[in-house]
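Researcher: Let's continue the batch. This sequence belongs to Trk system potassium uptake protein TrkA, and it's 226 residues. Same format as the previous ones, please.
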Amino acid sequence: MKAQQFVIIGLGRFGASLALELMGMGYEVLGIDHSEERVEELTDKLTHAVVADATDEGVMRSLGVRNLDCGIVAIGDNMERSILTAILLKELGVKMVVAKAISLLHGRALEKLGVDRVIFPERDMGVRVAHQLVTPYLLDYIELSKEYKIVELTVPACMNGKSLAEINTRAKYGCSIIALNRGGGVIVAPTSHDHVYEGDIMVLIGSNESIDQFEEEAVNREEADA
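Model: Same format as before. Here are the structure tokens for Trk system potassium uptake protein TrkA:
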């Protein structure tokens, strides 16, 4: 199967980091930036890296952007260029268009243009850090919607050796443990007979209320009493 192909427009810190991560995962990445210096830094690290004006339709057609699987607008210093680039990617027929927003107004404009996914890197990182600060065992946090989320929690000492039947998150709290990560091995869809041990990572999905209740009552409170 052919690897997915991405074009990333804007090779600042966010765009460059995203491009290098995708390359590391085995995907093909075309990087575009108006800065020759930024492009030179990534020339040997990406599939292709070119200096170009991403708002020029002729240039973008010549680069074959329309044939790629996903276009990511990572321009963070010019809202107008970001919007014009997103419009062009949609008009060229790129299958999926993702864009970084630098403000809520910018994000709303991108959504109205039909961008498939709008991301707020700084805001999203702030949300993650805030949750990690108030929940000691929280490793990561993904908001699925306003009502539901997925979290990664480190198993505390108070749960060491317990089976999932004993913890019984679904019946007691209304959330589910959908995976366990132990020493580099992942158990997907664990059964009630599986056990958790201190330091394991458990992945939960559920409503915000149910997971918050589990964190407060089963993790933080039991650990405080231990």
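Researcher: Any comment?
Model: The radius of gyration is 22 Å.
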